[in-house]
Amino acid sequence: MEKESSDLHGNAPDTCPVAVLIIDMINDLEFPEGPQLLEPTLKAADCIAHLKSQAKRLHIPVIYANDNFGHWRSDISFLVKHCLQTNVRGKSVMQLLKPDHTDYVVLKPKHSAFFETTLSLLLTYLGTKRLILTGLITDVCVQFTAQDAYLRDFQLSIPSDCVVAPSTERTQSSLDYMQRILQADITPTTDLDLQRFL
């Protein structure tokens, strides 16, 4: 799912001050908390899909940062195929958020999308100053990524309707923390104006 464009041939890309990061939404939800996560994840996926559509219209880069399901030989095509073609709980989520050929993909080995990945280099390449974080799980991988982004001086937006945890209390507690400590804008997608970040 690497981006297919002239920038793969050594030309500088069109830089953009903002990028959308979709965390761990390529997900079969086949784990103990999966059943309780399905409904809120579908709602968030619908909001993320709308956000992604807006971003595409404004030529804002979209980056998927995803676990490798613990398999070090995994690749993104395998993960997407698994979530789409197998009878797994997360299939309907993947149908809403399947990556396309213009999206960027980073496979992550641990909680933060920055840890031991190429994300920092990619964001420098794209000229990104603000990250819009979405995905699973609010108080784990999203928050770990947000903390690492904050330490790297990125401005943060974390739309409250685009992140999910096993309980609304966990999500709200994490959002409150990221708003207070990491200075994140948690405006939901219904009120988020992407144009103002350009």
From TrEMBL:
The domain of life is Bacteria
Task: Show the InterPro entries listed in the entry.
Answer: Isochorismatase-like_dom, Isochorismatase-like_hydrls, Isochorismatase-like_sf
- Please give the Gene3D superfamilies that the UniProt record associates with this protein: Isochorismatase-like
PANTHER family membership:
ISOCHORISMATASE-LIKE DOMAIN-CONTAINING PROTEIN, PEROXYUREIDOACRYLATE/UREIDOACRYLATE AMIDOHYDROLASE-RELATED
A single MF term (Gene Ontology) = hydrolase activity
Pfam families assigned to the protein according to its UniProt record, in alphabetical order = Isochorismatase
What name appears for this protein in its UniProt entry? Isochorismatase
Keywords, sorted A to Z: Hydrolase
| Annotated ranges, domain Isochorismatase-like | 19-180
